[in-house]
Amino acid sequence: MSATPDHGGSGASGRPARTAAVIPAAGRGVRLGPGAPKALRPLSGTPMLVHAVRAMAGSRSVSLVVVVAPPDGADEVRRLLDAYPLSGSLTDTTEVVVVPGGETRQESVRKGLAAVPETVTTVLVHDAARPLVPVDTVDAVAAAVRDGSPAVVPALPLTDTVKRVEPRTGERAGEPEPVVGTPERALLRAVQTPQGFDRATLVAAHEKIALEGEGATDDAGMVERLGVEVVVVPGHEEAFKVTRPLDLVLAEAVLARRRANDGF
Ligand SMILES: Nc1ccn([C@@H]2O[C@H](COP(=O)(O)OP(=O)(O)OP(=O)(O)O)[C@@H](O)[C@H]2O)c(=O)n1
Ligand SMILES: C[C@](O)(CO)[C@H](O)COP(=O)(O)O
């Protein structure tokens, strides 16, 4: 995988880059515990980030992947990606660019977005922390944007009931939080990535948030603040986010099941 610093307007194949994937991979992984940055943690011997890049590059529509590395780790990430080849004819025509990230996820996405050439009309934003997303899910998100939806998120129905609580503060900090409501579970979705956007919509959302400072925990949340409709397509259980140590155990089990199903 050629991790070139060139921000040129075309992919490695020389054709215009029409769909790009920005992979925010600059987080520290505090909830995962001490160790290397989360995106660099190995899953079955391959760094989590490499799994995520392969998932994006495996999509027929993606011709450019912008990896947003830890702010002081861009060179290390470039070397890492150069050491892991993309396989298959499709993915061999995917250019990989590495840029340094920022202090927040939204700042990292904004920095990655700045490296996406003007020729790109569809931008996917995918957490490196969701390394096992199936390519079919990536394709479905990209297709929904190309079919006219300016903002698309993959999501799953909830299996747990959700409660709204009133946090305890001051002298009552640490006491059990009172429940103040139970949203109707059937109307809730657990949202994943890649989230897909019309480029101009995503740029406008990040520019608005950069001015107003009202961050959101996902890019679709920022687009909603523009008053733009966000639509949901089916997510996938294997697109879960590696956040806590137990998620690493689950990720290894998923990879073991894939190897068994593939006969090796
Ligand atoms: N400043 C940041 C923070 C997060 N991310 C990326 O955003 C994705 C989702 O964030 P999260 O799962 O919260 O990762 P971390 O921030 O690393 O985890 P933690 O909150 O436990 O530190 C990850 O791929 C992470 O690398 C990023 O690019 N830049
Ligand atoms: C973008 C995201 O993965 C959608 O569920 C999630 O909001 C990221 O949250 P995090 O706390 O930054 O991991």
Textual characterization of the structure:
With 264 residues, the protein is an alpha/beta fold. The chain has one domain (18-166, 190-209, 216-262): Spore Coat Polysaccharide Biosynthesis Protein SpsA, Chain A (Alpha-Beta Complex), CATH 3.90.550. It has helices at 48-57, 74-82, 89-92, 105-114, 135-146, 199-212, 219-224, 245-261, and strands at residues 3-4, 19-24, 42-43, 46-47, 62-69, 95-100, 122-125, 151-157, 164-165, 179-181, 189-191, 195-198, 231-234. The strands form three sheets. Strands 1, 2, 5, 6, 7, 8, 11, 12 and 13 form a nine-stranded mixed β-sheet that branches. The longest helix is centred in the C-terminal third of the chain and has 17 residues, at 245-261. It is globular. The structure holds cytidine-5'-triphosphate (CTP) and ligand LQXTBERG. The record marks 185, 241 as: Positions MEP for the nucleophilic attack. Keywords: Isoprene biosynthesis, Nucleotidyltransferase, Transferase. Catalyzes the formation of 4-diphosphocytidyl-2-C-methyl-D-erythritol from CTP and 2-C-methyl-D-erythritol 4-phosphate (MEP). One of its GO terms (biological process) is isopentenyl diphosphate biosynthetic process, methylerythritol 4-phosphate pathway.
